[in-house]
Amino acid sequence: MEVQIAVAKVNKYAISESGDTLEVVERPNGGFSVVLADGQTSGRGAKAVSQMVVRKVIGLLAEGVRDGAAARAASDALFTEKQGKVICTLNIVSVDLHSGTIVLTRNNPASMFICRNNQADCITTESIPLGTSRNVRPLITEIGLEPGLVIVLYTDGLTHAGERHGEPMDVCEVAASLIEEQNSTPQQLADSLLAYAVRLDEGRPADDISVVAIKVLQSNGDSVRRMTVRVPINSVKAIR
Amino acid sequence: MEVQIAVAKVNKYAISESGDTLEVVERPNGGFSVVLADGQTSGRGAKAVSQMVVRKVIGLLAEGVRDGAAARAASDALFTEKQGKVICTLNIVSVDLHSGTIVLTRNNPASMFICRNNQADCITTESIPLGTSRNVRPLITEIGLEPGLVIVLYTDGLTHAGERHGEPMDVCEVAASLIEEQNSTPQQLADSLLAYAVRLDEGRPADDISVVAIKVLQSNGDSVRRMTVRVPINSVKAIR
Description:
Oligomer: homodimer
Strand order of the largest sheet of chain A: 1-10-9-6-7
Mean pLDDT of chain A: 91
Number of strands of chain A: 11
Distance between the termini of chain A: 42 Å
Low-confidence stretches of chain A: 235-240
Structural class of chain A: alpha+beta
Number of helices of chain A: 6
Shape of chain A: globular
Radius of gyration of chain A: 17 Å
């Protein structure tokens, strides 16, 4: 088998710094984790919060701490620092090769899309962001690694796209129809969802948007790990 | 402009865990850094060392510490822990959007390939791994971001490929000819170099091999950041 993970990420229109932070890290006992956080509001302040949360989580994961415990720790740290005045959403996707599963940890009101055996599911169980109280619990979903599995998760910029114009995006429905139509790569899937949202926002995203698409495939037979990162510099130069 | 970074990574033959560790992290003041370390020997012990070095470096970069200082700190920490008995190579590539440059930090005897204005250079200046003494200095090269720039760096598994059979690989020469022949993506370039080395090792890599290729291109006009990670699971399942 092969696990492919793709990310597509764009800033809120006319804001030079995304409040979303995403990092991919190796797990000390094999496998890797994707950590995605969305800090409240946008711009520099939101970036500082989401970066703090992601740093905290990847630091703990690197020490072998379990995902749920890392999410709780990040929530407690954020609550202690901001006293509930600033919140942050968190998603962790861990490909755990010890258990042969994908573990999804979620502290994010935004839904999550899972397709197994051609059966599409929209996970909408209520989930609370980090930093809201002393007792924040993450929702944890564990799924066996098998070819055909597709998972899509995102920050609320995607679910809120189009709201300004009274045409909110039904992310799970769009994801399901994209998967049905074509056998796209995870990057094409993430790109298509992002492009759909940006169109609904008439080319001017109303919020930072991050989309992560994961696909488990039959192996292509080679044992090379690969990674590609593409960063447009115009958008980044604006950061400074 | 757009910066594209690609990685191709393979384990030493019949060894389930790579001694090479690579992470990509966002810089707190804009831009991002690729950190690549190769711990002495191979397998679990080497992995622990390279992971320790990469963790140390990315933790410091996240606090805004400059690359050279982060490399020195990681060297001192390794020397203090292992008393010079275990060494580790380190390469840091930072796309610094504040200065509009790529900063290359190197503590690695393996060479480095740079192509600017169609002029290929092989950087072979002597460079000492981390942890060898109390006074390890990194070599730092700073290059302006401009379309057409290509940089390739690697662990010594690539430069030593073929040695067992008396046919050592001249990495810079192969890289230069690959660039001349075709306008390949960084992923194709990294994949081709890795495949060339694995062929010289007759399909059984004599060491862990990691190749990082960076290319600066004219922008394609969209402001989306993208990332793809592909991990074969057979090779990873063996890790456990």
